[in-house]
Design goal:
heterodimer, A: mainly alpha, two-stranded antiparallel sheet, 22 helices, about 75% helix, about 0% strand, globular, B: alpha/beta, D-Maltodextrin-Binding Protein, domain 2, 2 domains, 6-stranded mixed sheet, 5-stranded mixed sheet
Chain lengths: ~500, ~325
């Protein structure tokens, strides 16, 4: 297949003025959607889908896709400034993004996240261009056994996240697993801990929990430590004159982080169901275990922000692969895109790219342009966004409460979920106070049900035999990679550390 | 969202503006005629935007508006939550009000079986069943099984793994009833979504699966999936040559109802008005396109027959689910 010919053809379609306009609108809307906590790209896409009726399908799908990946840019802004992830894929960006802002480096953090997003997004699109046909084969070999093993691999992230207070971290994770069991059991159809409530049939969704724990929990804690009394100044000290552009050290120290984050994110994104959230968490923990200074992670390390940011953008590109090559949506957002394809009478499947080359390659080409637009928009808009943190906390606090509540409610228009968010906020405050790990709780809530379902499906298929994991080639690969990660990562970090110490000793 | 009526000052103002000319033109008895142009139709969509139920509701509303079949304003509201329990619960609370309306889908039957809802499907005033969601049984395109006879023979020799979405769902009921009639046993593997089960089948973890044809026609065309049998009365476009279960002599008589309902105990004039109107709606080219693009089976039943259909479907589901212990 002549990839460059196809790409040029796609570019000629994407670059028409009207399509560029759609792209710009999509990118801006995506950023705004990303900035609003809880209002994720999937909800944004679903609500804006009807607006695109009557538009030309190519332009409309370019615009919808731009909303999807644009949200990854916007979602980090609140992660950094308010410690409130704008959407689930930017949860990991709070770990070091917010401490950076607290240290007065909000400007460089925001610039670096925009650059990291651009690098991740662009590397992702380049990889789509080259690898689309090949990855179709990879995602095709994933069944329940592979999903289970993948979730197990994700649990490794948990070990990293639990950190130093392992007992408290473990309890946090167990609470997450426990919450994950609520809802109708997929296998038997029986309700678990639903108490007859129709609202709980679908289980506890992790978005309200994450918004509550991170957004409200942090807010309550800030009030607890008396931040609202510090009359002038916002949450964090930020002086625009002092520092806006990242330092040379920021750039140099994160070069390889961007490469690693992009590739890891893309690979995880391609695997249906894994998605940008897991990609960003995995990238964070990988970066931490490979770092010479893992103890600095969580205190405002630039690599700790760059890793999840490149990964979530690369993953959102990667998720387009199963969508375009198999018609399988890898995430909630790509599921809405799939619905959009079907609304226009397009038939997603393995023949989609062959039958609709203009649309498929136009979309891919538009993603190159879209990422450039988003980089420019982000950097120009940063001075505007950082004004948020100049607002005194006593004024900002109530606004955050409203945004959290509105954001949660907008996802499913559910009061129960909104109450859950407030409850999680109170729990989050105490977790913060006593050193528990909200991140471990959220990750366990995401991975727990995934692992349980996949394991039970696997064992139903194999009639209870665990050998199925060794019989399937794809499973064997994942087991090998997991074992490698378990053995190699700590070793590497040890080598890294001793190399760092040797350097210090030498000077 | 932009509900002008909720602003009493503005609506009062408009009403005053409109009332003068209308008052001159129309006699006072217009008040008693259903539907009144002054009354807003409160259209409940029991699911979020973008889903199957939402799409059907908005398609009908577009047709009603385009052909000027409904005289007043229609206000569609997404009241999602609890697999439809919230939205239909809201409609149930409007007993007797002819200006409340909603569309049904599979959950209309299955949610009351799973959760403690105060309502049953047959409590509502039935307007019409418009279409049914039917399923196609497929195997991997690289499988040795070429047709349904091969499949039944192979399944009798060694129980197969068949995937579907959810357990308290037509995806489980259809293969269960089919297997019972055709005389084979199988393991049902439950998935959260069509995408998950398709991946599982392509990765050769599953032997077969059931699904709505619309989502997998692309893969059937490309030869990645092979269709064996269809559960509806007649096969949709794209599945020509595939036998139906009834043609094989294994008629299971179960499908997911997509219809239209009013709150309980609505005056019979309102029910009749909607039946007459829906007869016009299903004749429009827009409706034909909707049925085709979503590969639904156009099964049209009106009024009390729809209530009977709902009761029978619910009883059928209950029996199968109880026999496997999914509900008690």
């Amino acid at each position: 297949m002549d990839i460059f010919g196809d790409l040029l053809m796609g570019l000629s379609i994407a670059i028409t003025p009207i399509n560029l306009l759609y792209l710009l609108v999509g990118a801006m809307v995506g950023m705004v959607v990303g900035v609003i906590p809880g209002f994720g790209p999937s909800a944004g896409l679903a609500i804006l889908l009807p607006v695109t009726f009557g538009m030309d399908p190519t332009g409309a799908i370019m615009m919808l896709a731009a909303i999807y990946y644009g949200a990854m840019y916007g979602g980090t802004i609140t992660s950094i400034l308010l410690n409130t992830p704008g959407e689930s894929a930017t949860v990991a960006s709070t770990f070091d993004g917010y401490p950076l802002a607290k240290k007065g480096r909000a400007g460089p953090a925001l610039v670096m996240q925009a650059v990291a997003s651009f690098v991740g997004g662009t590397v992702g699109v380049i990889l789509i261009t080259i690898l689309a046909p090949m990855f179709a084969q990879v995602s095709r070999s994933f069944g329940p056994p592979e999903y289970f093993l993948l979730a197990m691999m994700g649990m490794l992230t948990l070990v990293v996240m639990i950190g130093n207070h392992w007992k408290l971290g473990l309890i946090s994770a167990l609470i997450g697993f426990a919450l994950g069991t609520v809802g109708v059991d997929l296998e038997s159809g029986q309700g678990r801990y639903t108490f007859g409530s129709a609202e709980l049939i679908g289980g506890i969704y992790f978005i309200p929990i994450a918004i509550g724990l991170f957004g409200l929990g942090e807010l309550f804690y800030s009030f607890y430590v008396g931040m609202h009394r510090s009359g002038s100044g916002g949450i964090v000290q930020y002086d625009k004159e002092a520092e806006f552009w990242p330092s040379a050290h920021d750039w140099l120290s994160t070069r390889m982080t961007m490469v690693r984050g992009s590739i890891l994110g893309f690979v995880v994104g391609v695997i249906p169901g894994a998605g940008a959230t897991i990609a960003s968490l995995m990238a964070y923990s990988t970066e931490r275990s490979m770092s010479k200074t893992p103890e600095k992670f969580g205190t405002g390390e630039m690599a700790g922000l760059v890793a999840p940011e490149t990964a979530n953008n690369a993953a959102s590109s990667g998720a387009m692969i199963p969508l375009l090559t198999l018609g399988i949506p890898g995430s909630a957002s790509t599921a809405v895109l799939l619905a959009a394809f079907m609304l226009w009478g397009l038939r997603p499947g393995p023949l989609f790219m062959e039958q609709n080359p203009e649309l498929a390659w136009g979309l891919i080409a538009s993603m190159y342009l879209g990422n450039m637009i988003l980089l420019a928009v982000s950097i120009f808009a940063i001075p505007l966004f950082v004004q948020i943190i100049k607002v005194p906390y006593r004024l900002l606090g109530p606004v955050i409460v409203v945004i959290c509540a509105l954001g949660t409610f907008s996802v499913h228009a559910s009061f129960i979920e909104t109450y859950l968010m407030f409850a999680a906020g109170i729990v989050g405050f105490f977790m913060r106070l006593y050193g528990f790990s909200p991140a471990a709780l959220v990750l366990a809530l995401v991975l727990g049900p995934l692992a349980e379902e996949a394991l039970r499906q696997t064992l139903t298929i194999s009639r209870g035999s665990g050998m199925i994991f060794l019989e399937r080639p794809a499973s064997r690969w994942i087991i090998a990679v997991t074992i490698m990660l378990v053995i190699v990562l700590p070793l590497m970090s040890r080598f890294g550390k001793s190399a760092g110490e040797a350097e210090k000793a030498g000077t | 969202m932009f509900n002008i009526e909720s602003n009493w000052m503005r609506s009062g103002f408009f009403a005053a503006l409109i009332a003068v000319p209308v008052g001159l033109a129309a006699p006072a008895v217009a008040q008693d005629v259903y539907p009144s142009a002054d009354q807003k139709l409160d259209w409940t969509i029991a699911f979020g935007p973008g889903g199957g139920n939402d799409l059907m509701a908005r398609t009908i509303i577009d047709i009603l508006t385009k052909y000027e079949l409904y005289p007043g304003n229609i206000s569609p509201q997404n009241r999602a939550g609890g697999s439809g329990a919230v939205g239909w619960g809201y409609l149930y609370g409007q007993s007797g009000n002819p200006y409340g309306i909603s569309t049904t889908s599979g959950s209309f039957v299955t949610t009351p079986l799973q959760a403690d809802t105060p309502w049953e499907p047959s409590d509502f005033t039935p307007v019409a069943l418009l279409a049914t969601d039917d399923l196609v049984l497929v195997v991997n395109g690289s499988s040795d099984i070429q047709n349904i006879e091969d499949f039944i023979a192979a399944a009798k020799a060694k129980p197969m793994n068949i995937g579907g979405t959810g357990t308290v769902n037509v995806d489980f009921i259809v293969p269960s009833l089919f297997a019972e009639k055709a005389g084979f046993e199988f393991e049902y593997v439950s998935f959260n979504s069509m995408a998950d089960q398709t991946t599982a089948l392509l990765s050769e973890a599953l032997d077969a699966m059931v699904g709505n044809p619309g989502e997998i026609l692309g893969m059937i065309d490309s030869g990645d999936l092979r269709p064996l049998v269809y559960s509806g009365d007649s096969v949709p476009e794209g599945l020509e040559g595939v036998p139906t279960m009834a043609e094989l002599g294994y008629d299971i008589g179960v499908s997911m109802p997509r219809g239209l309902i009013l709150p309980p105990d609505v005056p019979v004039e309102a029910q009749e008005w909607w039946i007459a109107t829906m007869k016009k709606v299903v004749e429009t080219p827009e409706w034909t396109t909707y049925i085709k693009t979503n590969t639904l089976t156009p099964t049209v039943i009106y009024g009390e027959d729809f209530r009977t259909f709902l009761t029978e479907t619910k009883d059928g589901f209950e029996k199968v689910l109880r026999s496997v212990g999914a509900i008690d």
